[in-house]
Protein backbone atom coordinates (compact mmCIF):
# COMPACT_ATOMS: atom_id res chain seq x y z
CA UNK A 1 0.00 0.00 0.00
CA UNK A 2 1.22 3.51 -0.86
CA UNK A 3 0.09 6.67 0.92
CA UNK A 4 -0.07 9.85 -1.18
CA UNK A 5 0.77 12.95 0.87
CA UNK A 6 0.09 16.38 -0.58
CA UNK A 7 2.93 18.79 0.30
CA UNK A 8 2.56 22.54 0.91
CA UNK A 9 2.91 23.11 -2.85
CA UNK A 10 -0.17 22.05 -4.85
CA UNK A 11 0.60 19.08 -7.07
CA UNK A 12 3.87 18.10 -5.38
CA UNK A 13 3.09 14.77 -3.73
CA UNK A 14 5.16 12.51 -1.49
CA UNK A 15 4.59 8.79 -1.98
CA UNK A 16 5.16 6.82 1.22
CA UNK A 17 5.01 3.03 0.83
CA UNK A 18 4.40 0.36 3.41
CA UNK A 19 7.68 -1.51 4.00
CA UNK A 20 7.18 -5.10 5.13
CA UNK A 21 10.19 -6.44 7.03
CA UNK A 22 10.93 -9.96 8.19
CA UNK A 23 13.97 -12.11 8.95
CA UNK A 24 14.77 -12.45 5.23
CA UNK A 25 14.73 -8.74 4.44
CA UNK A 26 11.91 -6.54 3.18
CA UNK A 27 9.22 -6.18 0.54
CA UNK A 28 7.78 -2.93 -0.79
CA UNK A 29 5.25 -2.08 -3.47
CA UNK A 30 7.23 0.73 -5.11
CA UNK A 31 4.63 1.93 -7.60
CA UNK A 32 1.14 0.95 -8.65
CA UNK A 33 0.94 2.63 -12.05
CA UNK A 34 -2.85 2.90 -12.45
CA UNK A 35 -3.20 4.32 -8.95
CA UNK A 36 -0.26 6.69 -9.44
CA UNK A 37 -1.55 8.14 -12.72
CA UNK A 38 -5.02 8.59 -11.20
CA UNK A 39 -3.57 10.42 -8.17
CA UNK A 40 -1.27 12.73 -10.12
CA UNK A 41 -2.69 13.12 -13.67
CA UNK A 42 0.88 12.50 -14.86
CA UNK A 43 1.37 11.31 -18.42
CA UNK A 44 3.10 7.93 -19.01
CA UNK A 45 6.83 7.93 -18.36
CA UNK A 46 9.14 7.87 -21.37
CA UNK A 47 12.58 7.84 -19.71
CA UNK A 48 14.23 6.85 -16.44
CA UNK A 49 17.56 8.26 -15.29
CA UNK A 50 19.98 7.53 -12.46
CA UNK A 51 22.73 9.57 -10.90
CA UNK A 52 25.22 8.77 -8.16
CA UNK A 53 26.77 11.37 -5.90
CA UNK A 54 29.06 11.66 -2.92
CA UNK A 55 28.05 13.46 0.25
CA UNK A 56 27.79 17.22 -0.07
CA UNK A 57 26.87 17.21 -3.76
CA UNK A 58 24.18 19.78 -4.54
CA UNK A 59 22.44 19.36 -7.90
CA UNK A 60 19.96 21.83 -9.34
CA UNK A 61 17.78 23.72 -9.64
CA UNK A 62 16.94 22.21 -13.04
CA UNK A 63 13.95 22.19 -15.38
CA UNK A 64 13.07 22.08 -19.05
CA UNK A 65 11.13 24.91 -20.65
CA UNK A 66 7.91 25.12 -22.64
CA UNK A 67 6.66 21.99 -24.41
CA UNK A 68 9.73 20.06 -23.24
CA UNK A 69 8.69 20.53 -19.59
CA UNK A 70 8.98 17.36 -17.52
CA UNK A 71 6.96 15.89 -14.70
CA UNK A 72 9.22 13.76 -12.50
CA UNK A 73 8.94 10.95 -10.00
CA UNK A 74 12.15 10.91 -7.98
CA UNK A 75 13.56 8.42 -5.50
CA UNK A 76 16.76 7.89 -3.55
CA UNK A 77 17.64 4.20 -3.92
CA UNK A 78 20.76 4.38 -1.75
CA UNK A 79 21.48 6.93 0.96
CA UNK A 80 19.63 10.13 1.83
CA UNK A 81 19.00 13.41 0.04
CA UNK A 82 17.15 16.62 0.76
CA UNK A 83 14.97 16.96 -2.30
CA UNK A 84 13.61 20.37 -3.28
CA UNK A 85 10.92 21.47 -5.74
CA UNK A 86 10.29 25.12 -6.68
CA UNK A 87 6.99 26.23 -8.19
CA UNK A 88 7.59 28.12 -11.45
CA UNK A 89 3.99 28.16 -12.69
CA UNK A 90 3.55 31.87 -13.30
CA UNK A 91 -0.21 31.73 -12.69
CA UNK A 92 0.27 29.93 -9.36
CA UNK A 93 -0.29 31.56 -5.97
CA UNK A 94 2.85 29.73 -4.83
CA UNK A 95 5.10 30.94 -7.68
CA UNK A 96 8.72 31.03 -6.49
CA UNK A 97 7.93 29.03 -3.33
CA UNK A 98 9.75 25.82 -2.50
CA UNK A 99 9.21 22.62 -0.56
CA UNK A 100 11.87 20.25 0.82
CA UNK A 101 11.35 16.53 1.48
CA UNK A 102 13.85 14.04 2.89
CA UNK A 103 14.15 11.10 0.50
CA UNK A 104 15.60 8.10 2.31
CA UNK A 105 16.42 4.72 0.77
CA UNK A 106 15.34 3.00 3.99
CA UNK A 107 11.93 4.71 3.99
CA UNK A 108 11.66 4.10 0.22
CA UNK A 109 9.60 7.26 -0.22
CA UNK A 110 9.34 9.14 -3.52
CA UNK A 111 8.39 12.63 -4.63
CA UNK A 112 6.20 13.52 -7.59
CA UNK A 113 7.03 16.91 -9.14
CA UNK A 114 4.64 18.25 -11.81
CA UNK A 115 5.44 20.25 -14.94
CA UNK A 116 6.90 23.76 -14.54
CA UNK A 117 8.73 23.06 -11.30
CA UNK A 118 12.48 23.41 -10.84
CA UNK A 119 14.10 20.48 -9.03
CA UNK A 120 17.29 19.93 -7.06
CA UNK A 121 18.72 17.84 -4.26
CA UNK A 122 21.50 17.80 -1.70
CA UNK A 123 23.19 14.54 -0.66
CA UNK A 124 23.44 14.27 3.13
CA UNK A 125 24.70 10.67 3.33
CA UNK A 126 28.26 9.60 2.42
CA UNK A 127 26.95 8.37 -0.95
CA UNK A 128 23.61 8.40 -2.75
CA UNK A 129 22.07 6.78 -5.79
CA UNK A 130 19.13 8.71 -7.19
CA UNK A 131 16.60 7.77 -9.88
CA UNK A 132 13.95 9.78 -11.65
CA UNK A 133 11.25 8.88 -14.11
CA UNK A 134 10.14 11.62 -16.52
CA UNK A 135 7.22 12.04 -18.91
CA UNK A 136 9.25 13.95 -21.51
CA UNK A 137 12.73 12.98 -22.76
CA UNK A 138 15.81 15.04 -21.96
CA UNK A 139 16.16 17.98 -24.32
CA UNK A 140 19.42 19.95 -23.82
CA UNK A 141 18.12 22.85 -25.95
CA UNK A 142 15.26 23.46 -23.50
CA UNK A 143 17.20 22.93 -20.27
CA UNK A 144 17.25 25.80 -17.78
CA UNK A 145 19.22 26.04 -14.53
CA UNK A 146 18.39 28.36 -11.65
CA UNK A 147 21.01 28.85 -8.96
CA UNK A 148 20.22 26.85 -5.81
CA UNK A 149 21.39 29.93 -3.91
CA UNK A 150 19.08 32.41 -5.66
CA UNK A 151 18.23 35.10 -3.12
CA UNK A 152 14.62 35.48 -4.24
CA UNK A 153 13.86 31.77 -3.79
CA UNK A 154 15.97 31.71 -0.61
CA UNK A 155 16.35 28.01 0.19
CA UNK A 156 18.08 27.72 3.60
CA UNK A 157 20.31 24.76 2.74
CA UNK A 158 22.37 25.03 5.94
CA UNK A 159 19.30 24.97 8.18
CA UNK A 160 17.82 22.07 6.20
CA UNK A 161 21.01 20.05 6.69
CA UNK A 162 20.89 20.65 10.43
CA UNK A 163 17.15 19.91 10.55
CA UNK A 164 17.49 16.54 8.82
CA UNK A 165 20.82 15.38 10.26
CA UNK A 166 20.98 17.07 13.65
CA UNK A 167 24.56 18.10 12.86
CA UNK A 168 26.11 21.45 11.93
CA UNK A 169 26.95 21.73 8.27
CA UNK A 170 30.66 22.31 9.00
CA UNK A 171 30.85 18.85 10.60
CA UNK A 172 29.35 17.05 7.62
CA UNK A 173 30.82 19.12 4.79
CA UNK A 174 33.94 20.96 6.03
CA UNK A 175 34.79 21.98 2.46
CA UNK A 176 31.28 23.16 1.67
CA UNK A 177 28.89 21.91 -1.01
CA UNK A 178 30.05 20.36 -4.28
CA UNK A 179 28.43 21.88 -7.38
CA UNK A 180 28.93 21.62 -11.11
CA UNK A 181 30.06 24.70 -13.00
CA UNK A 182 26.60 24.88 -14.58
CA UNK A 183 24.89 24.98 -11.19
CA UNK A 184 27.40 27.45 -9.76
CA UNK A 185 26.56 29.79 -12.66
CA UNK A 186 22.81 29.19 -12.62
CA UNK A 187 20.33 31.90 -13.51
CA UNK A 188 18.15 33.86 -11.11
CA UNK A 189 14.40 33.57 -10.74
CA UNK A 190 14.12 37.00 -12.39
CA UNK A 191 16.12 35.69 -15.36
CA UNK A 192 13.64 32.84 -15.68
CA UNK A 193 10.67 35.21 -15.75
CA UNK A 194 12.38 37.41 -18.35
CA UNK A 195 13.59 34.60 -20.61
CA UNK A 196 10.48 32.44 -20.46
Polypeptide structure, described:
The protein is of the alpha+beta class and 196 residues long. The chain is built from five helices and 13 strands. The protein has helices at residues 33-40, 157-165, 169-172, 181-184, 189-195, and strands at 2-6, 13-17, 19-22, 25-28, 47-54, 58-64, 72-78, 80-87, 98-104, 110-113, 117-123, 127-134, 143-145. The strands form three sheets. It has a six-stranded antiparallel β-sheet, with no helix packed on it. A hairpin with a 6-residue loop joins strand 1 (2-6) and strand 2. The protein is globular and about 55 Å long. It starts with a strand and ends with a helix. 34% of the residues are buried.
Question: Can you lay out the helices and strands and say which pair or pack?
Answer:
Elements: E1 2-6, E2 13-17, E3 19-22, E4 25-28, H1 33-40, E5 47-54, E6 58-64, E7 72-78, E8 80-87, E9 98-104, E10 110-113, E11 117-123, E12 127-134, E13 143-145, H2 157-165, H3 169-172, H4 181-184, H5 189-195
Number of helices: 5
Please state the average pLDDT score.
Answer: 95
Rg is 16 Å
Number of strands: 13
Strand content: 35-45%
Terminal Cα span: 40 Å
Q: What is the succession of H and E elements?
A: EEEEHEEEEEEEEEHHHH
Percent of residues in helices comes to 10-25%
Structural class computed from helices and strand pairing: alpha+beta
The outline comes out as: globular
Mind describing the biggest β-sheet? 6 strands, antiparallel
Low confidence ranges: none
Write out the strand line-up for the largest beta sheet, numbering strands in chain order. Answer: 1-2-10-7-12-5
Amino acid sequence: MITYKQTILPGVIELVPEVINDSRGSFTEVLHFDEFFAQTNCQPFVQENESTSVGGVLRGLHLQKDIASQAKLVRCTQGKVIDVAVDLREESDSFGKWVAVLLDSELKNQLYIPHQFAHGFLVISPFASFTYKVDNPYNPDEEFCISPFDAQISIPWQQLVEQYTGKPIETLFPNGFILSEKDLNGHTLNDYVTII
